[in-house]
Amino acid sequence: MKFPLSWLKDEIDIPAGTTAEDIGQILTDLGFEVESIEHLGLDISGPVIVGKVLSFVEEPQKNGKTIRWCQVDDGTTVRGIVCGASNFLVDDLVVVALPGAVLPGNFVIAARETYGHTSDGMICSARELGLGDDHNGIIRLGTFNLTADLGADAIELLQIIDDVIDVSVLPDRGYAMSIRGISREIAAKTSWKWSDRANLIDTAGAKNAKAVGVRIEDRNAADRIVIRTIENYQPETVTPYWMQRRIQLCGMRPISLAVDVTNYVMLELGQPLHAFDADKLQGDIQVRSAGKDTQITTLDGVERRLYADDIVIADDSGVIGLAGTMGGASTEISEQTRRIALEAAHFFQTRVALTSRRHKLGSEASRRFERGVDPLLAPIASARASQLLRDIAGAQEIGAVEVNNYSKPEQIVVRADFAKRIIGSDYSDAEIMLALQSVGCIVSKNGERFNIVSPSWRSDLLNENDFAEEVARFFGYERIGINQPPAAFGGRNLALEQRRRALNFLAQQGLVEVLNYPFVGDADFDRLGISADDPRRLLVQVANPLNAEQAGLRTTLLPGLLSVMERNFGRGAVSIPVYEFGTVFLDKPSSAPIFETNKKPAEDDIKLLFASVGMQPRYLAALATGRRFSSGKTELDWDWISILSLVRNLAKVLGVYLEFRQTQWEPWHPGRSAAVITNGNVIGFVGEMHPELSKTLSISQRIVGFEIDFDALIERSSVVQVKRQSNLPFIEIDVSLIVDEKVTVQDLIETAWSSDLDIIESVNLSDVYRGKPIEEGKKSVTINLLLRSMERTLRESEAVDLRTKIVKLAEEKFGAYMRDVN
Fold first, then answer.
1. What is the pLDDT of residue 118?
2. pLDDT at 633
3. Alpha helices in 346-445 (DSSP H)
4. Residue 733, helix vs strand vs coil
């Protein structure tokens, strides 16, 4: 909401010396966000006066342009001035910038030789004075019905110098989108004298059979509407300059008298209005839903197809306007208009918002209705607009018709200590009553309760939380002290500790955490290659989804991670290691019951509610592609062996024993993936993604990753004792064994660990090979061991002895033998 300080000063008795910045600070203290304060006219200096065109001679030039050599009376002398405009006449009063003046853009005026004359000043246009972007010729003061003595200060006459304050109005503060609303707020905060202009307006209207009738057919669209019929309107009447200027300073554009008056009253009081050409109406005005009507051409010239439940204004011919948003072209005010039907209504917020958003048509009217308009304003604002049209254009009001179904606000009872409980600071009963009464509430104390009736313009004041906010706002947020909440130690939370260990570990390995929306759809599972009967496709459906194509809650984290990978790969990233920790939603056959909100459900109903909620375990998943760096700083690619080692080390950090069994599960590679098992239960999968998936995503690199039920994982976890690190040299060895296919990698790793716990620091899978010269039914498994002692430097012979010991143990357990690498 933009407004000029000069208009505010007409409404409130503001103390001398108060600046726009002071007003801005008051509004900030009241909880408003001041977007900007603009000081207009400060870039104009020197003599800019009212002059009169005595005569001019038109002189065509060689460049094809015609200039006027003008004689202009400045009240003291006659000056010769060259002017390129041609929209003025002899005897017109104009604005003249004399030599020595400086106009916006640091444009210095001086007597200068041009087109064979000495131009002693400049006749100004609106744009040259910073009054707007229009440049349709020079300013003719007579067209604004402005008169002044020759030589008078034109800057003051045109009200160029002013301060404009721009306030961001929150969705629940619709009452502040007017000078009346802003004035009321400031006056309540400062105790400056303010008289509500609305109280001075006579809303009585005569009853006349010639007046346009009105009815509300959709009671869910509006509860009040007033139509005033005005005759003998003179459409050629010019909008007074003071009104035009105020409309401009509020960020709107003057159009014509009837439109300007409705806009002015909206800015003044906060009530949107609309003027119809009454002679173009057929029958009564109706407020209803669009129904079977299919289209309307709005005032912006756009033909719009209507939805059945759009809220509209209609007559017997059909729809003539989108209610609360924009009127229709068929009943538009024109130069031939003589009778006006002036409409002021209280439309319901949600219906206007829905209609406006559907048609992507925001207007000054819809922005106010969406935030809430005072339902008592309709007759007041229409009477104010009618009076202005009568005073300015000589029109006559012949009748007013009103439909009023408005119900007054009900009394709200709150506990007397509500402010202290909610805000945390002490306020006396007298202070609470003062604060609430200052914003228009009717307040009384009854024992340990306050009885409060909210004002008509504050539909947002519904409970004690809203009232507490008003108390805090009135007395200033700086009064609210800082209270340190008491420390509450609920004992050790192992699950939280393990989560932190897991996420920190992944971050230390170079993976980046991402957060995705939990919404998925059939297309996500289709591109993963997941079959139609897979239980992961059984989704909890969202009642009102943001995207109809993703209307379910996720059962896996992989779709979100793949989208992140695809987006980053498309933007040129080559190495993309990402992980996510989040909830998945596993469906149950029963649906959640819906209970009444005015009472607590019975215990059995609560049990039924919880029983209907599906499982929501927390999953941990990661995907990686491209290059990575090993501990030896050697640049390598992410592959399924590296991601398997990552999961093994993660389990080690969490103190969990995991087994891995080769499996086939969409969307994992059938030969390079494994099920993650603990305590005999499958809790996830790890390995390389199916190559067909990379083609679907247009990623020309292999993708590896894992997805684990983290809740199930930490159920088997234990406290990990941090081992002291040795600073002695290490020895790295590989052991390559040929074993039967049925022998798992996990079996061999556990065997290696058992050989000597004192000097083995880590055991990881290095490679699995099948094919010649390995005989069919067997495989070659290479495991990598890092050896280090805490007390001494190891000898090479000890590493050789340990390798021999591991081979012997594997031979005894699995019939393994060492692979000949020659």
1. 95
2. 47
3. 349-358, 364-371, 377-393, 418-423, 429-438
4. strand
Shared-domain flag, residues 224 and 313: yes
d(C-alpha 180, C-alpha 202), whole Å = 17
Look at residues 445, 479, 513 and tell me which one is the last residue of a structural domain: 479
Domain that holds residue 616: 494-715
- Asked if 261 and 371 touch (Cβ cutoff 8 Å), the reply is no
Q: Say which residue the tokens 């009736």 belong to.
A: 453
Same domain, 644 and 527: yes
- CA dist., res. 155 & res. 157, Å (int): 5
Count CB-CB contacts under 10 A for residue 527: 16
Regarding whether 543 and 639 lie in a shared domain, the answer is yes
159 residue type, one letter: Q
Quick one: how far is CA 345 from the chain centroid? 29
Does 219 lie in the same domain as 231?
yes
Angle at alpha carbon of residue 779, lines to 774 and 781, rounded to 5°: 120
Phi, psi of 53 (to 5 degrees): -80, 115
Contacts of 629 (CB under 8 A, 6+ apart): 510, 635, 636
Q: Looking at residue 325, what DSSP letter applies? A: T
CB < 8 Å & 24+ apart, contacts of 257-262 = 257/389, 257/392, 257/393, 258/233, 258/333, 258/337, 258/340, 258/389, 259/333, 261/385, 261/388, 261/389, 261/392, 262/342, 262/385
Shared domain check, 357 and 269: yes
Which residue type occupies 87? N
For the chain, give the mean pLDDT: 89
pLDDT in tens, 1-24: 999 999 999 999 999 999 999 999
Domain of 427, CATH number, reads: 3.30.56.10
pLDDT at res. 692: 82
Q: How far is the C-alpha of 153 from the C-alpha of 96, rounded, in Å?
A: 10
CA atoms of 69 and 73, how far apart (whole Å): 13
Strands (E), 407-471: 412-415, 442-446, 449-453
Clarify whether residues 752 and 691 are in a common domain: no
487 in a structural domain: no
Contact 168, 153 (CB under 8 A): no
Contacts 24+ apart (CB under 8 A), 745-748: 745/644, 745/660, 745/781, 745/783, 746/658, 746/659, 746/660, 747/813, 747/814, 748/781, 748/783, 748/810, 748/814, 748/816
Q: Mean pLDDT per segment of 10 residues, for the chain of length 822 residues?
A: 94 94 93 92 93 95 92 95 94 96 93 94 92 80 91 94 93 91 93 90 85 94 95 93 94 93 96 96 94 88 92 94 94 94 95 92 93 94 95 93 92 93 91 93 93 93 93 89 67 79 92 94 89 88 84 93 90 91 80 73 81 87 83 67 88 84 87 87 92 79 93 73 70 91 82 83 82 87 88 89 91 86 53
* 83 φ, ψ (degrees, to nearest 5): -135, 135
How far is 723 from 719, CA to CA, in rounded Å?
Answer: 12
Calculate the CA 123 to chain-centre distance.
Answer: 47
Domain CATH for 320 = 3.50.40.10
Q: Provide the terminal-to-terminal Cα distance of the chain, rounded to the nearest Å.
A: 83
Tally the domains of the chain.
6
Environment class of 6 (CB within 10 Å of its CB; exposed 0-12, middle 13-18, buried 19+):
middle
pLDDT (tens digit per residue) in 545-587: 888 889 899 999 999 999 999 899 888 888 999 999 999 998 7
CB of 146 within 8 A of CB of 155?
A: no
Asked if 561 and 623 count as a contact pair (C-beta separation under 8 A), the reply is yes
Are the CB atoms for 654 and 714 separated by under 8 Å?
A: yes
Domain assignment present for residue 485? The answer is no
Domain of 675: which CATH number? 3.30.930.10
The rounded distance, in Å, linking the Cα atoms of 125 and 88 is 11
Q: What is the pTM of this model?
A: 0.64
